[in-house]
Fold each of these.
Amino acid sequence: MATIRAGRKFSLILAVLMIEIFVQKGTAEKVVQSASPLRIVSDRMVLDEKSRTITFEGHVTVEREDIVITCRRLTVFGSKEADFSSSFRTGGPVKEEAVMKKIDRIEAEGDVRVVQGNRVATSEKAIYYVDRKRIVLTGSPVVAQGQDRLTGQLITLDLATGKSIVEGGREKPVEVILHPSSEPIKQETGQ
């Protein structure tokens, strides 16, 4: 269901712009690949060499540039070639590019919130598949920009192609709510 006021012109581009909290050029890459420092704060961190995971638990906050991600649990899953422990054992600085190449996916769970400016995405779970450059939001996902909102059962963002798919169902249909711009709408004349 889309809520649109009569007499106002709206473009579906607004809905696409709302989804672009992740898709806009470089947004997801800012979190995982940037010259700026990546800051992760949590109550606990567990590095499990056997399962090739790094888990941050309790009051997790990830910050880089103008993006802030909060959740209850963040797990980094290494690929089959991953050896995170050697990255930390060298005694020198960790080479982020080398670590990122070893990551299969990153899962954020529990009250997931991603904020960049006036754009906010929330869900119970968000999974970023590094190689496929795909983000999947599940558990009552909502993407909002200002007062505009987009909801569904499942939101899939393909960062490589720029394609976004919002899926709904009988209990939770896709819903887009767009508010009129505060800027006056120019009337077009046929001349």
Amino acid sequence: MVKDAESLGGSLGTAMDHALAAATETGTLAAEKLGSLAGNARSLGEEGLATFSKTIERNPLAAIAIAAGAGLIAGLLCRRTDR
């Protein structure tokens, strides 16, 4: 009976070791994937910002008009919610 309990304990220990190793590997892979995704998101953001900046440099009056229009709309919406 004692040997059966010791055998069962050893089997459980081995199973726990395998489960821990699998969980650690999964966590490591997930962290690597998230790091890669973060790098890709940063690159896309930087490219979008560069494109946005170039567009504003080529069309500064249009950019000012759009910003003024957005500000006017935001102001009107805020004014309506104050009443």
